[in-house]
Amino acid sequence: MIDRREGLWNAQRMSKTDLEQARQHLLAELERLDRQYGEIDGERRSDGPIDKLTGDAGQDTARVDTDLRQEAEIQTARNEVVAALQRIDDGTYGLDEDTGEPIDPERLEALPTARGNIR
User: Fold this and answer.
1) Facing residues of 95 across strands?
2) How far apart are CA 78 and CA 84, in angstroms?
3) How far apart are CA 111 and CA 109, in angstroms?
4) pTM exceeds 0.90
5) Helix%, strand%, coil% for the chain, nearest 5
6) What residues are paired with 102 via a beta bridge?
7) CB-CB contact of 19 with 88 (8 Å)
8) Helix, strand, or coil (residue 98)
9) Is 95 in contact with 102 (CB distance < 8 Å)?
10) Helix (H, G, I), strand (E, B), or coil: what is residue 49?
11) What is the pLDDT of residues 16-26, one digit of tens each?
């Protein structure tokens, strides 16, 4: 378990500007994911299941499977973004969840939702 005081120390170590930039980047990513999810969901709903049927059960199943898989991947990514935003609010953003050590800033820049360092 992470000592909350260490998280606050790390939040202070990361400048307010850095934290705000991370927050803005994460919020933009959340908006992008929501838009992408809406497009997939809207496409499926607007055409209706009968209009999308090709007559080939395998092809129809594959299309539905692809849509559902994409939606699940988007939801997983969205959950990670929401969790990262919560870590910013909690003062633990930028700390490895397992060790409590600061996450490499280059890793956070490349993957703002990172929960830990690469071992």
Assistant:
1) 102
2) 10
3) 6
4) no
5) 75, 0, 25
6) 95
7) yes
8) coil
9) yes
10) helix
11) 899 999 999 99
- Amino acid at the residue 41: D
**Phi–psi pair at 99, nearest 5 degrees:** -105, -20
Residue position matching structure tokens 């490349």: 110
Show the beta-strand stretches assigned E in the chain: none
pLDDT single digits (tens) 52-106 = 556 667 776 777 788 889 999 999 999 999 999 999 999 999 999 999 999 999 9
- Give Cα separations from 41 to 18, 22, 34, 96 (angstroms): 34, 28, 10, 35
Residue 37 CB partners (closer than 8 Å, separation 6+): 71, 74, 75, 78
Among all chains, which residue has been given the structure tokens 């849509």? 67
Tokens 């378990």, residue located: 1
User: Residue 26: helix, strand or coil by DSSP?
Assistant: helix
Question: Encoding tokens for residue 18?
Answer: 């850095």
Cα angle at 117 between 91 and 98, to 5 degrees? 65
